[in-house]
Amino acid sequence: MNKITYFGSESEINEAIAILKQHPTLEGMKEPDARLLIQKLIDEHRIKASILVNGNSVWSKDRILGNLERIIKHGTLYNEDQKKPPILSQYFYQFLSLACGSIAHYDIHGWIHKYSTLEHLKKFFKHNEFGKRVLDWIPTWHTDARVIVQQIETQLYPFESYMRSREEPTKVKRK
Do 151 and 89 have their domain in common? Predict the structure, then answer.
């Protein structure tokens, strides 16, 4: 049985519960499958409440990839106008520090100080703070995070992603 926990305002939690209740088999699903279904529901219904399965956050793919598009467009994670919030969203920062093998660096501003440009972000996804590719750092059961990181890699390294997709094991026919 999956334990599903909600955090947010009362109205956000009630909305999330109502949406997830429409899928009564969710709690009995294998965790990797449940995580992908919840991620889909979060994005389809723009659920604002944080949803955890067995104590671990389920991440919105749309929110993170939308923020990544802004970062790619600007080429930086910070905003030139220091009076405005950083381009890196708090949500994406939490994903990086909780799911991708990064320490928090005190807060979002500390993280941005360490990884201020798109090039720094690219290097981080190849070698996180534990020396691993971010995708290799994330456990296989954390399917929602893995899907997001695969998409991030596709956007950050389009040529490499294309080449990986072309690599299929050749089958030797035997007579």
Answer: yes
Domain end point (choices 16, 34, 57)? 57
Q: Could you read off the pLDDT of 71-98 as tens digits, one per residue?
A: 999 999 998 888 889 999 999 999 999 9
Residue 84 lies in a domain: yes
Range of the domain at 138: 61-166
**Is residue 20 domain-shared with residue 67, that is, in the same domain?**
no
Q: Are 20 and 41 in contact (CB under 8 A)?
A: yes
Long-range contacts of 141-147 (CB under 8 A, 24+ apart): 141/31, 141/32, 141/35, 142/35, 142/56, 142/99, 143/32, 143/33, 143/35, 143/36, 144/35, 144/36, 144/38, 144/39, 144/58, 144/59, 144/61, 145/59, 145/95, 145/99, 145/100, 147/36, 147/39, 147/61
Taken as a whole, the chain contains a residue count of: 175
**68 vs 156: CA distance, rounded Å:** 9
pTM: 0.89
pLDDT in tens, 111-137: 999 999 999 999 999 999 999 999 999
